[in-house]
Design goal:
16-stranded mixed β-sheet; mainly beta
Amino acid sequence: GKFQLDNVDFNMQMLPVIQNLDARIGQAALNGGVIDLGSRNVGIKYIGVDRADVDYKYPVPNDSLDIVTPVDSTTLETPTDTLLWTVKAEALRLNNSHAVYAMAGAEPVEGLDMNYMELSDINIAIDRLYNRGTDIKLTLSQLTALERCGILLTSGSGTLSMNKDEIRADDIRLETMQSRILLDGAVGADFSADTEIPMDMDLSASVGVGEIGRMYPALWPMLKNVPQYNPMKMVVQIEGSSKKLDLKKALLELPEYIAIKADGSVRNVMNVESLAANVDFAGDFKNMNFVKPIMLSDTAMYKQLDIPSMTLGGHVAYAPNNADASMALRMDN
């Protein structure tokens, strides 16, 4: 069947997670929905939301809040009917929408403010959604939005899934006007410190220098001297578990300027008291003069100083109550 709602407003609070949530929906439509009470199956052909305006405020960390005390679980009856519902949707759409995700009381600052994120012109397309108990899987085919700082997300796609054992991200691709991020990875779902959970990630990114300046305006005096056609490159490849995580490759490079590489291993990632690491690193700093605008305010010294090219290599070993590092630096004449 078909179902449509127009001009819907709602508000909710759910402390300590949601300080306040205001939502206004221009139009919401459902097409081809079927609910089978006998088999507990929900099938949906299409759900679309148009012109949503959402304002989500989360509490200030460690703020004193009036939180409702949960009911003692021992006083609740355990349901005898444990058959899970299965929900399948073929198409979910969110179009022409706006959202604010911010800490309560926060005022936005220039650039990308993680305490006050605001997205406009949001368009999301999800093809195929599956949910049964803790199992969730969705395929994202489109994601576009404009962040308040001026970053325009032009496309997004990939598959996200979660079950009782792991959380996965497969073939995640995000693109802006100047940048691209590719991600594949998985992590175990049990994050307790005494549990060994599998971890792996393959991340590669190419980030436009101009967009870094939009996100972090304080860096722009330095970055404006770097050619805009040279995006910053980043690669991170890790695999293993929380007990022993191997850093196969880590690379941060601004072509023709700097390149920093690292590899090694980290033990007991989830336990700070027994955390240990062994990492080798190397750096090639071909042209560091672009950092002078944020290092030197004296114009005369700025013109006189010439930072030589240099290479750096070393090793860091860390264990509880024991740390050791060695480093070699060479400067070219």
